[in-house]
Amino acid sequence: MKFHLPQIPLKFAWPIGLLVVALIANATRGQWWPGLNSWVQSTVADNRSAVGLDQHGHGDAADDSHATHNEATSLELSDQALQNLGLTDDGISEIRLTTFSRSITVPALVVERPGRTRIQVATPMTGVITGIHAAQGEAVEPNSLLFEIRLTHEDLVRAQTEFVTTLGELDIEKREIARLSEAAAAGGVARKTLLERQYASDKLEALLIVQQEALRLHGLSDEQVNQIATKRRLLRELKLYSPNADGSYSKELRLSRSFARTEILPVSMQRPVADPPLILRELLVHRGQAVDAGEPLGTLVNYSELYIEGMAFEQDITQLSAASRNGWKVIALFDQADGNVHEVPELDIAYLDTEIDRVSRTLNFFVELPNEVTHENTGPDNIRFVNWRYRPGQRLQLRVPVEQWENQIVLPVDAVAHEGAEYFVFQQNGDHFDRLPVHVKYRDQFSVVVANDGQLFPGDVVAMRSAHQMQMALKNNAGGGVDPHAGHNH
């Protein structure tokens, strides 16, 4: 059995064929339209030039090389001019559809992270400072020796003394029990006397347990308690080490004479998993100074992670809340000495303040700012100083996204020239740049959103900067010149 395709009447064949061709042409528009558009513009410019030459009786074969470009809308630049305008490398780029974030700009300040940036070092016991092993401003690694203290803490001295005394009494009781055990076995001593000695020994062992716990409460480790029990000598010296970056201590209090100082590695040799260096921001004591238990000795700071405190207006609360809820990234803008702006993108909003300032009527919000060490210096006596890229107190601006538009043509603000009601971009066409009028949907001080209406297509190559200078060059080439009073009122 054979099947036959239905025959399409001839009167419907042409409309269907045209519809298929139109669909294919629309699907491949990005490939053939730029070339066709350029050819049409060149043809129109060529015809206009030919008409102008016929009317005035001019014309020369030497001008044939420029017949395909309209001098009123096309600009040819030398290699030197391209470099002067910055139209090299990333100065010329392809158009791509991207997501544009409409944003607000607010003033901000780099601040410390409360409870995280500053770490205070205090002595747990009373004593006299006998050694200081770090200078103010020096970078120290975690677990590095900072202070040595000769202990005069009465409670600790008394606790150690009582512990050693109890150990001696227990030794005497054990020797006496051993002697009485032999005598009781021979019938020379009453059994009751041996039992009394054993009870006394049990009491001393129970007392030792209590005294060991008291020493641990004073800050001694099990190893140090065992050292006292073995050597029967009181520990007289306290060594304080720097904590970890989070403020925790991985080393116990050192109350012995021997210690091993942690090796400080240069930044280039530090392991990626190593804690960042701490800076001794304040040194509050000196050698020979007597300190009481709990008295601060110095302050360490950890600048590896900071906050940016933004100050937004009260009416921006809804927009800020939406940006925080949607996880939109914030851009930090730091002014530099050369007039440029250093951008730090992809920053997260940590939290919004719960109150509005009653005086300034601003809402403070905080953005996480990862920091990095730029370089380090080694001073006399191998004292190491490091320099962080960002420091508390720096002023900057924050760009906070409040709305996002997808599949947009986004260009730098320098890529679009403005003259009256017209906006122009310059598309690269061989060794020329053709000026194209565009419709600007949105413009701020950083970016321009151009309508995707068929004038520009993804893949077109345009100048990303110096559009205004190129527009002035076109006006000069046309003979119009530049008004010396432009932009001035008299």
Q: Taking Cα atoms only, what radius of gyration do you get, to the nearest Å?
A: 41 Å
Sheet with the most strands?
9 strands, antiparallel
Number of strands: 25
Query: Would you tell me the overall average pLDDT?
Result: 80
Molecular shape:
elongated
CATH topology of the domain at 104-114 and 302-403: Elongation Factor Tu (Ef-tu), domain 3
Look at the helices and sheets and give the structural class: alpha+beta
How far is the first residue's CA from the last residue's CA?
94 Å
**CATH hierarchy: architecture of the domain at 104-114 and 302-403:** Beta Barrel
Helix tally? 8
Structural notes for this entry:
The chain contains 8 helices and 25 strands. Strands 3, 12, 13, 14, 15, 16, 19, 23 and 24 form a 9-stranded antiparallel beta sheet that branches. A 4-stranded antiparallel beta sheet has the order 1-22-21-20, covered by helices on one side. It is elongated, with a radius of gyration of 41 Å. Mean pLDDT is 80; it is low at 48-67, 255-273 and 484-490. Among the domains are: 10-63, no CATH class; 75-99 and 404-477, conserved putative lor/sdh protein from methanococcus maripaludis s2 fold; 104-114 and 302-403, Efflux pump adaptor protein, beta barrel domain (Elongation Factor Tu (Ef-tu), domain 3, Beta Barrel), CATH 2.40.30. A hairpin with a 3-residue loop joins β23 (440-443) and β24. The termini are far apart. It has helices at residues 10-27, 29-56, 79-84, 154-186, 191-217, 222-231, 317-326, 467-477, and strands at 74-76, 92-94, 97-111, 118-122, 127-132, 139-140, 145-151, 237-241, 278-283, 290-291, 296-301, 305-313, 330-335, 341-347, 349-356, 362-370, 373-378, 384-388, 395-412, 417-419, 422-429, 432-438, 440-443, 447-450, 461-463. α4 runs antiparallel to α5. The protein is 29% helix and 32% strand. By secondary structure, the protein is an alpha+beta fold. 19% of the residues are buried.
